[in-house]
From TrEMBL:
Belongs to the short-chain dehydrogenases/reductases (SDR) family. SUPFAM superfamilies: NAD(P)-binding Rossmann-fold domains (SSF51735). It holds the Pfam family adh_short_C2. This is SDR family oxidoreductase. It comes from the Bacteria. It comes from Ruegeria haliotis. PROSITE patterns: ADH_SHORT. Coiled coil: none annotated.
Amino acid sequence: MSIAIITGAGSGIGQAIAVKLAVDGYKVLVNDFNADAAEKTVARIGSNAAAHHGDVSNPADVAQMIEHCHRAFGAPTHLINNAGHVHQAAFTDLSVDDFDHMIAVHLRGTFLCTKSVLPGMLSAGKGCVVNVASQLGQIGGVELVHYSAAKAGIIGMTKALSREMSAQGVRVNAVAPGPINTPLVRALSPDWQAAKAAELPLGHFGEPQDVADTVAFLCSDAARLYVGQTLCPNSGDVML
């Protein structure tokens, strides 16, 4: 049985991933900082899902999330590190708190959640971790220096961890979406959105389902040769 924890799954990309994996037969633990949002995702899925309210940057909350998964379904076989937030500001206006909060949610959260599931995966000799990064971690973004730095860190963590874990049966990969039509992106200024869409070879943003389909592939046996990779559903924003 496949059991997935999806962080930040109360809306947007995380919700689409949770729904997709549930349709594919997974049991899913839906984590979100917003308890009501997590419950709404579970309501969409039904009995194959359970909601967990918690902050991925808080070690105690992460420990409780893992315990909840064990109680509800069993040991997680898959982890999708998706939790994040976006904040737009010129670099000269960034505060230390702005920077630290961005790193805490994205990079520290990915570290804590992954570290918490790895013992069980290593004991089983198999497992899969997919980290949701961003194309801004590859090319940077104006007024998004802290966000870009956090996402670049996730890509680096993915590569390094895959070198440690692949031979022990745990595959670690990442996705780096381009602009996706989610509440997080819609929170950015209309001018930024219009300018960004005009830069894309496809001329439009993607949808959460596009990212969910990519994550589902990386979680599947069809991706057994993929380790340390970053797949890029990004409307052509980055071409590697």
